[in-house]
Structures are given as C-alpha cells and as structure tokens.
Amino acid sequence: MKERKIELIGLIGLILCVSAMIVYMWTTTADVNKISKRLDNLETKLEQVSSGINTLTETTKELECIKADITTLKDNGKAYTEQIEGVSDSITKLQKELKDKVEDLNKKIKAVEEAKAEKKALEVEMLAAAVPDPGYVETSYTAPTGGCLTPSGGVYNGPSGLETYYNLPMDGVIEQARNFGIEGEYWVRDDGVKMYGDYVICACNRDIYPLGSLVETSFGTGISLDTGAFVAWNPTNVDIATSW
User: Fold this and answer.
1) Whole-angstrom Cα distance, residue 159 to residue 162?
2) Which one, 91, 161, 185, 211, has least CB within 10 Å?
C-alpha cells in the first residue's frame, strides 16, 4: 500500500512536470509569436524609414539640382545685365552722335538759308541799283514817232528784236516786281500800253534781260518784268503788255 502511494505520488509529480513543461512551452510559443509580430512590425517600420530616407535623399538631390540651376540663372542674369548695360551704353553713344549730327545739320541748313537770304537781298539791291527809281508816275507820255507795234499789225521789228503783244492780268507780275524791290506804279497809257512807273512792261528772255533790266521798244524804254515759253523758239522776242 505504501508502495502504491509512492508510485501515485511519482505519477502525479510526473504529470505535474509534464503539465508545467506544456504550460511553459505554450507560454514560450506565445511570447515567440509576439516577438515575431513585433519583429515584423519593426521590419515594416524599418522599411518605411528606409523608403523615407531614400525619398529624402532623392529630394536632397533635387534640391541640389535646383540650387545649381539657381546659381546658373544668377550667373546668366549677371551676364545678361552686363550685356544690357553694354547695349544701353551703345544706344546712349549713338543718341549723342545722332544729336550732334542733327545739330550740325541744322547749323548747315541755317547757314544755307542765311546765304540764300543774303543772296536774295544782294540781288534785290543790284536790281534796285540797275533800275532808276521812278519818283513819279507819268500821267501823260510822248507818243513814239515813226513805226511801232499795232493791234492790226500783230508784230513789229523793234529796236531790240521782234515785238509782239499780249493782254493778261498783271497782278502776279507786279507782285513779283515789288517782292524783288523794284518799286513802281502800275498804270495803262491812253494807247493801251501797260506801264510800270515810266517803263513799258515787257516779257523777255531772262538770260538776255534779267528781271528788272531795261529794254528798248518801239513804245519807248521798257522793263523786263515777265517771260514766256516763246523764248524757246525766239530768244530775242520782246512781248509787250497791252490792253488790246
């Protein structure tokens, strides 16, 4: 009986040991599973961190590229600024040269205009000196003796060449004479001859009788105040202004 108790106690002890071992193994397995899960989670996190590090590395590289681009842009901007400043200086220089040339041209134009005015004044002075100043207007005249130009004859061989007559308004002729300083009064004689002061108004070849010069006619001394196309085929023709 005593031996059975001992065996039973031994069996119970064995059962308890086995049970303890089973419990231990079950507990250990659960812990291992937990640790494995934690390791898996940690590995996942490490992969995420690694991915983040890779992304950060790529971002850093991109930032470096952007920084390099910015530096290049700054250098290019500096070069462009220098080029713009150079062009601006060239434009300023050209503007100054153009201004100087315009001023020089204006001076030349002014000098030419002054020379023209001086020449015109000299011509007027010479014409005024060449033509006697009619201090009076002759209201009567001495009719020419001998032959002269007539309306019926139409032409006459006068002292200075072939004479013809024409009847046109004298406003422009008189204005031109006065603009050139040739003083006189316009009037018409009883025989229809148009006069300027004491002189018969004539249209002549300006190469032979310049404006304001005197010319002898069958009606007395005339003055060259007009001209016409007739001088091309008859340069010595004297066309006398009349009211016929």
Assistant:
1) 8
2) 91
CB distance 216 to 222 below 8 Å: yes
Each residue of 3-55: pLDDT tens digit?
666 666 666 767 767 666 666 666 666 666 776 777 677 677 777 767 777 77
The reported pTM is 0.45
Are the C-beta atoms of 240 and 161 separated by less than 8 Å? no
Domain count, the chain: 2
Straight-line distance from the first to the last Cα atom of the chain, in angstroms, rounded to the nearest whole number = 193
Residues of the chain where predicted confidence (pLDDT) is lower than 70: 1-11, 13, 16, 18-32, 35, 39, 42, 49, 118-146
Does a structural domain hold residue 148? no
One-letter identity of residue 87:
V
Instruction: Please provide the size of the chain in residues.
Output: 244
Does residue 137 lie in a domain region? no
DSSP string, the chain: -HHHHHHHHHHHHHHHHHHHHHHHHHHHHHHHHHHHHHHHHHHHHHHHHHHHHHHHHHHHHHHHHHHHHHHHHHHHHHHHHHHHHHHHHHHHHHHHHHHHHHHHHHHHHHHHHHHHHHHHHHHHHHHHHHS----S--SS-PPPSS----TTT--EEETTEEEEEE----HHHHHHHHHTT----EEE-TTSBEEETTEEEEE--TTTS-TT-EEEETTEEEEEEE--GGGGT-TT-EEEEB--
Backbone angles phi, psi at 24, to 5 degrees: -65, -45
Type of residue at 57: T
Which residues form the domain of 58?
35-130
